[in-house]
Amino acid sequence: MKKVIVAAVVAAVAAFIGHRFLQLKEMALTSRDVPVKHLNCHYLKNIEYGAEDITILRDGLAFLSTGLNYPGMPSFSDENEGNQGKMYVLDLLHPRPTPVELQIRGELDLSSFNPHGISAYIDEADDSVYLFVVNHPHHKSKVEIFHFVEENTLVHLKTITHPLLHSVNDIVAVGVESFYATNDHSFPNEALHFLTVLLGLPWCDVVYYSPKEARVAADGFMSANGINISPDKRYIYISDILDHAIDVYERQEGEQLVHLKSVAVGSLCDNIEVDHRTGDIWLGCHPNGMKLLMYDPEDPPGSEVIRIKNIHSEQPVVSQEYADNGHVLIASTVAAPYEGKLLIGTVFHKALCCDLK
């Protein structure tokens, strides 16, 4: 009788694991291919090792984080040849916009600088520009705060670490030293995180940090990835990349977040950028997650840009604006619009500047 029970339990566990692996394949969109849909684009000069995140100020200055080296992801950068993480700035109002490397001053170890998600904050008191950068030195998670000054320079002001900020992916600044940050892992340990994904446990979260407090502001994500804010600062948008959805939250008094809705996007969407004029949501996405994880240069992961219009209406309009099979652009992560232009960045490949008009 015991043997029968043991056999039944083993069979049940095997069936459950098999079912979960099938669901993981669906989650990763392993069978998805997208037809090519190109825009009039050209490669940005000087960007050879990805531009994982891009954010654009209202005056047309774009900041780019490059050279990300992330566990489980391919990387074309080589720290031994001086290709470690760097920050660039790009003036989109220039007739021929060209990324220029930002010089970093201050007490920051540039040899281990590994920038990921970024966010800019403008202090209305004096129009000072602060750049928040997620940094993974030696695969840890830190948030670096910089002051952007003239002559293409970032002055390092502060490094923030906290136990709640254990697997930070992206960030949106809401003050000179305050921000929301996404954790894309439920645990810092890769094995434990994979177990939660295998079991379908939505244990990732979003953390609010200020000098006075740090706390979980929202949870229940399979993997919280990109995050951004509406032009009027009332709403926070979060990409749950494994759930193929964008979650909309309302900011309330005391930086409390209230979930309003989820919008299905049908792709593995990474970073979120918001058109400062229209409020449209622009997403850099991975059409097939398995191709990204199991990188094959003969069959590279593709790129996809998705746009959401009227996200707060009862019927948001979700549209595909760009798609490539990986032969022009590999593994897109961000799509940042500005006055008829669109910058598309990637994990480890190149970056594009495209015409929308």
Automatic annotation (TrEMBL):
Gene3D superfamilies: TolB, C-terminal domain. Its EC number is 3.1.1.2. Coiled coil: none annotated. Keywords: Calcium, Disulfide bond, Glycoprotein, Hydrolase, Metal-binding, Signal. Its cofactor is Ca(2+). InterPro entries: 6-blade_b-propeller_TolB-like, Arylesterase, Serum_paraoxonase/arylesterase. One of its GO terms (molecular function) is arylesterase activity. Ca(2+) 2 binds at residue 169. It holds the Pfam family Arylesterase. Ca(2+) 1 binds at residues 52-53, 118, 170, 225, 270-271. It catalyses: a phenyl acetate + H2O = a phenol + acetate + H(+). The active site is at residue 116. Disulfide bonds join 41-354. Binds 2 calcium ions per subunit. Belongs to the paraoxonase family. This is Paraoxonase. The gene is LOC116049365.
